[in-house]
């Protein structure tokens, strides 16, 4: 629904009067430094709608589900087409299908993704801009509600999974990991307590390498790859 350049063969008015269409949208988060600060914030890309409804408003990247296309494939395709992004982590978030969310009946299957800042291609994409996830303008359709739900899921999931890995390099210091947690939770964390908690979680593996700089060398860690980034339970990949 949110893809700004969708061009589909339109069925007759009689055929579409009671039809329900399926769209796929994606909320993709990254971390960016706040202006004039050393702190990070959670940011996401939005696209400008170029046609009604909501022409000129910002919206989540997305588009229609093509015939014979899986939902995850549609999420990856529409995200690449609208933003040029190809995240390694993509998970289904929720289905939004309120009757009055669009002038016509549309159910949106929403995915969410994480991407590191160094994975974002250089150069801007037409009609696309990055926004702080907590201070968004009024968005098209129910997209403010969707982003709020995605942020809630991210903040809940960071407490019991290795979701932060999607925003980190393969190896990282505990201070870098804490910065990710602080950005997601939007609050400061006590460094000593944080160290005790993550080292006792069993999800981190210390390496024999160190980050050097102006401070004393900091040990590099990596995540235990046996812990899944996204827990799909008994579902197969054919969804």
Automatic annotation (TrEMBL):
Signal sequence annotation: none
Molecular function GO labels: hydrolase activity
Keywords linked to the UniProt accession: Hydrolase
CDD domains found in the cross-reference section: NUDIX_NadM_like
Annotated Nudix hydrolase domain residues: 19-155
Keyword Protease in annotation: no
Protein name from the UniProt record: NUDIX hydrolase
Keyword Hydrolase: yes
Species of provenance: Microbacterium hominis
InterPro entries linked: NUDIX_hydrolase-like_dom_sf (IPR015797), NUDIX_hydrolase_dom (IPR000086), WH-like_DNA-bd_sf (IPR036388), WH_DNA-bd_sf (IPR036390), WHD_NrtR (IPR054105)
